[in-house]
Amino acid sequence: MPTTRRQFLNLAGGVTVAGTVPIVTLRPLQATPAMLNAAIRNLVGEAQLRSGRIRLDIPPLVENGNTVPMTVSVASPMTADDHIKSIHVFNEKNPQPNIGNFYLGPSAGRAQVSTRIRLADTQKVVAIARLSDDTFWQVAADVVVTLAACTEEMN
């Protein structure tokens, strides 16, 4: 018996729907302090994190988490023998703990990066610098966010 048009469309629609079922990966909406520590350990391994040499300029209180200005600078002569290899920025409560990675070299002139970030809530922001001698330096700052990112209503 030949296939009717209705049977064909039902079959084709069923295959289409079955083919578009999304694969759902469940993860928390916010990172946790444990995820922050795991991301930092993933970067530095077993190396010691030292304090000093690095400066994080970020407002301690921001009205809107959608655009938070941030500058990370590291005291370094930026010569071939003594320079900053990279700067990494992490946060405690955004969906992903790693905000950004910036790779530098001696030709950068100075070890400083400025950008704007989004913060989902009041949280700790951590900046880590990797020097050419493979030492890691860190600084942390607590930021209070009065209006979290991604929650503004559209007018």
What is the distance, rounded to the nearest whole angstrom, between the alpha carbons of the first and last residues? Answer: 58 Å
Cα Rg: 23 Å
Helix tally equals 2
N-to-C SSE string, H for helix and E for strand? HHEEEEEEEEE
In round numbers, the mean pLDDT is 86
**Main beta-sheet strand count, sense and barrel state:** 6 strands, mixed
Residues in β-strands, percent:
35-45%
Helix content: 10-25%
Class based on secondary structure composition and strand pairing = alpha+beta
Low-confidence regions: none
This entry's quaternary arrangement is single chain
3D shape: elongated
In total, the number of strands is: 9
Quick overview of this protein structure:
With 155 residues, the protein is α+β, with helices and mostly antiparallel strands. Helices cover 17% and strands 39% of the residues. Strands 1, 3, 5, 6, 8 and 9 form a 6-stranded mixed sheet that branches. A 3-stranded antiparallel sheet has the order 2-4-7, with no helix packed on it.
